[in-house]
Design brief:
about 700 residues, alpha+beta, Beta-lactamase, 3 domains, seven-stranded mixed beta sheet, 21 helices, 33 strands, about 25% strand, flat
Amino acid sequence: MSRKRELLSRVYMLLVVFVAIALILMAKAALIYLSEGDVLREKSRELYYRVDRTDAERGQILADDGSPLATSQPIFEMRMDLAAKGLDDPTFYAGLDSLALCVRNLTYPERSVTQVRNMLQDARRKRKRYLLIGKNLNYEQMLAVKRFPVLRLGPNRGGLIVQSETRRIKPYKNLASRTVGLNRSNSEAVGLEKSYDVYLRGEGGSRVVRKVSGNLYLPVDGLDEILPHKGSDVITTINPGIQEVAELALSEALHKHQAEGGCAIVMEVETGAIKAIANLQRNPEGTFTEVYNYAVAHSTEPGSTFKLAALLALVDGAGVDTSAAVDLMGGACNFYGHAMKDSRIHGRGMSDLADAFALSSNVGISRLTVQHFGQDPARYIAYLRKLGLGDKTGIDLDGEPAPVIKDPQRDKKNWYGTTLPWMSVGYEVKLTPLQLLTLYNVVASGGKRVSPHLVSAIDNGRDVTTLPHRCKSDSLIAPGAREKVLGLLKAVVERGTASNIQTDAYAIAGKTGTAVTNYSDRDALQKSYQASFAGFFPADAPVYSCIVVVYNPSQTGFYGAEVAAPVFRRIADRCMRAEFLRSAVVNLEDKQMPSAAHLPSQNKGHLHDFKQVFSIIGLPFLPVGKSDWVETYVSDEGISAAPQKLQRNYMPDLQGMGLRDACFLMDEYEVRVVPSGSGKILRQSIPPGSLIQGHIVEVLLQ
C-alpha cells in the first residue's frame, strides 16, 4: 500500500509540473500575443512571400461616336535581375555588348556604349536584382525591350522584370474635362469617372511575389496568378463636335466680356441626352479652364429666364390669355414699399402679357402674377412643383443641389409680401443652369419632363447594355397653353430682347435673363451680373434645348441678349448645320446619281496614290512641282497635277478628296475628320483658308 501511495504521489507531482509548465507557456504566449503580436505579424508578412493585388485595366469613357474621351494607356518599367537563377556568366557575357548598345539607345543616350557596358558588368558583379533598363515605356517599346539580347531569354534565364501601370489620358485634352472627370490615386474622383466607377474599374487580380532584398519583391515563376478583368466602357451622349463649339464660343465670350466664368449645356429634347456641357472658370493666370461644374452644381437666382415659369403659371395654371392687359407703369412700380423696376425706364403704359414677356418687363410679369395668385400664393408654388421645379434633375453626376423654391406654408418666416412678385421674375428662388434648362425642355417636348443624362450604354466587351432615359409621359402643360407659350418664346427672338440672334435659316424660341447677383450687398461699389439665355431650336419642331450662363461679365455689356445669346446662336448654328448635312445626305441617297463617263478632274489627294492609279490604268500623269499633296485636272497631254496650297494653322481645301486622304492630311494639323455620307468630300464645316481654332472638321461626302 505504501508503495502504491508513493507511486501516486510521484504521478501527481509530475502532473502538477506539467500543468505548471503548460500554464507558464500559455502565459508566455499570451504575453507575446498582446505585447509583440503586431510586430511579429508584420515581420512574418515581410518574410519571403506575399500576395499582391493587380489592378484591372480601367474601361474607356467614349463619346457618342465611339471616340475616347478618357482611356487607359499602359506604361511599362523594365528592369533586370542580374542574380536570376538561370542567368549564367557565359550567357550574360556573350550578349553583353549588344545588350549595352540597346540599353544605351533606349535609356542612356548621354552615355557611351562602353559606359553602359561597364554599368551592366558592375551590376552583374554586385548581383543587383533590380537594375533599371527603361521606364515610362509604351507598349511598342516594351515589346522591343523583350527582344533585347539576354533579356529575350525571359525572367529566369535572362533576368527580365516587367512592371506595368496604367495612366488615364484624355485624347481630346480639355474637352468636357470636368464632366468626364478625374481618377487619380492622389485626388478624389469626380465626374463620370466617379459616377460610373463601379463599371469602369473592372475586377482586380492577384499574384504571389517573393522578397529578394529590402522592400524588393519579384513575381514567383510557375505559380498561377488571378488575372484582372478589364472594366466596362461607358458610352456617353456627348458629341465632340457640339462640345467643341460650345467650349470655343463660351471661351471667346468670357474673354470678350472679362467674366469670372460660365457654362453652356445642349440637350436632346426628346431623350434628355446631354450633347455638350461646357464649364469654364477664370484662373489666376487670366485664362479659362474647367475646374468647377457650374452647369450641375452652381445654384443661383436665375433672373428673367425664370419668367417662363411665371408665364406657364399664368397661361396654363390660371387660364390667363396672352392678350391680358397690364400696365407697365413706365418701367417701375412698388410692392409693399419696395421698388420693382424694368431694365430701363421706358415710359410705356398699358400693354399686354405678350408684349410684357417679349420685352422682359419685370413690372408687367410681377403685376400679373400678383393679380392672379396674390390671394393664394400656395397655388402658384404648387404649379411650379407640378412642373418639377422643386426636384433635382437626377443627372448622373454627383454634386447637384436641390432647387430652392420657397413655400408660403412651410417657410412662413421667410415669406413676405414681396416674395411672390420677386419670385415671378427670377429672384428669391435658386436653380442650377441644368435645372432651369429642364424647364425649357418641358415646353420644347410638348409638356413632358425628361430627365437629363450623360451616359447611354455600358459595353462590357460581350454585351452592350442600353440605359433607358427617364421621362414622365403625362403632359404637364395643356396643348393649347403650350402653343401660346411657344409663340411668346419665339416672339422674344423675332421682335423682343433677343432679336439680335434671329436667323432666317431656322426659328429659335427662348428667353434672355439678366440678374443682379449682389443686390443684397449694400456696401458693393458696383453691381455684379449674371447673363443668360435659355431656349430651344428649331422652334416649331424642337431637336435641341440649350442654355448659356455667363457669371459676372465686366466689359462690353452685361445683358443676357448681348453676352449669352450670341453664344447660344453659335452653338445652335453648329447643331443645325449637322441637321442640314444629315438631310442633305438623305436627299442624295434618294437620288439616282449618273455614272461618270469622263476622266477624273478636280480630285485632290496624295501624289504617290495618283501615280500608282494612273500607272495601272495606263493614263499619262504629269505632276507639276514637288508637293506631296496635289489637285488633278485634265490637260491636252493627259492628267496633270498642281500642288495644293497648304499653310500651317489654316484649313486646307478638302473638297474633292477621299476620306482616307483627308484623315491622313488632317492628322498633320491635329484635327479629326468627322464624316457624313460616302464618296468624295462635297462640303466641309471649316471653310478652306480660314484659321483652324478647334480639333474637329465635319465633312459631307457624296
